[in-house]
Amino acid sequence: MPLNSYRFRSTWSVDCTPERAFDVLADLGSYPSWWREVRDARQVAEDAAELRCRSVLPYDLVFQAHHNAKEPAEGLLRANLVGDLHGTASWRILPDGAGARLVYEQEVVVRKPLLRGLAIISRPLLKANHELMMRSGQRGLRTYLAGFRAALEN
């Protein structure tokens, strides 16, 4: 595997129905509302958005996410990524007791020239950065979904 290729897998637990989680995750434009590292989302087509992400490292990654699978009954969302990241990302949304388990998988090649050129040095930093971003995303999604639940209860 080239040094600028990455495979990531994260599992989140959330306190909502799988259907609610699917709806929120399918709406790429809402990501900046709950995931602070997703700094901007601009709709570029019906099932596509350009995302600008930045975590603790001092660089932005800009890429387009194009849904190629949106299957609520199967709990599957998958998107092709094109830009500073090139590859695929997917969510599997599964029932888990009264809530949902979300499995995120990403297989990408980092195409941003600076990061590609420094791959041997930046690889461990990018992995750690990704892990921090995913933890933050889980916290943000839990808070966002709790707001939905509170609004429905009032």
What does this structure look like?
- It contains 4 helices and 7 strands, in the order βααββββββαα.
- With 154 residues, the chain is α+β, with helices and mostly antiparallel strands.
- The chain has a single domain, classed as Alpha-D-Glucose-1,6-Bisphosphate, Chain A, domain 4.
- A 7-stranded antiparallel sheet has the order 1-7-6-5-4-3-2.
Low-confidence runs (pLDDT<50, min 5 residues)?
A: none
Gross morphology: globular
Helix/strand class: alpha+beta
Termini separation: 52 Å
How many structural domains in the coordinates? 1
Query: For the CA atoms, what is the radius of gyration?
Result: 16 Å
> Fraction of residues in helices?
25-40%
Summarize the structure.
The protein has 154 residues and is an alpha+beta fold. The chain has helices at residues 18-26, 31-34, 113-117, 119-153, and strands spanning 5-14, 38-45, 48-53, 61-71, 76-83, 85-96, 99-110.
